[in-house]
Amino acid sequence: QVEAQAAGRPVIALGAGGALDTVVDGGTGVHVTEQTADSLIEAIRRFERLTFSVDRNVAHAQQFSKERFSRELVALVDETQEGLRAGRSQLWN
Predict the structure, then answer these.
(1) How far is the C-alpha of 60 from the C-alpha of 72, rounded, in Å?
(2) What's the CA gap between 93 and 79, in Å, rounded?
(3) Are residues 8 and 49 in the same domain?
(4) How far apart are CA 54 and CA 28, in angstroms?
(5) How many Cβ atoms are within 10 Å of 59's Cβ, its own excluded?
(6) Are residues 49 and 35 both part of a single domain?
């Protein structure tokens, strides 16, 4: 899903699990509400009525890039180390 969005393409995905985070219903794709043929047909019909932005899909997908994950993980580790050095016993609220 994220790979398709990174290429600017909207997706149709089951509205469960990770797709709830990676696919914005009506924005970067469409959620299928149930695992049934009728639900899939309705999602396809909605998909065909909507207009999707290539730029929005690409920008949304970039939130899930390896680079961003690495950058945020390093920042979290740095923040944790600083807290430990400062003697804070509770790092997170």
Answers:
(1) 16
(2) 14
(3) yes
(4) 9
(5) 14
(6) yes
DSSP secondary structure letters along 30-62: EEE-SSSHHHHHHHHHHHHH----HHHHHHHHH
- Domain count of the fold of the chain: 2
Question: How many whole angstroms separate alpha carbon 47 and alpha carbon 50?
Answer: 5
Domain of residue 41 covers 2-62
The pLDDT tens digits for 35-67 are: 999 999 999 999 999 999 999 999 999 888 778
The reported pTM is 0.69
Residues in the chain: 93
Q: Please choose, from the candidates 51, 27, 31, the residue with its C-alpha nearest in 3D space to the C-alpha of residue 39.
A: 31
C-alpha Rg value of the chain to the nearest Å: 18
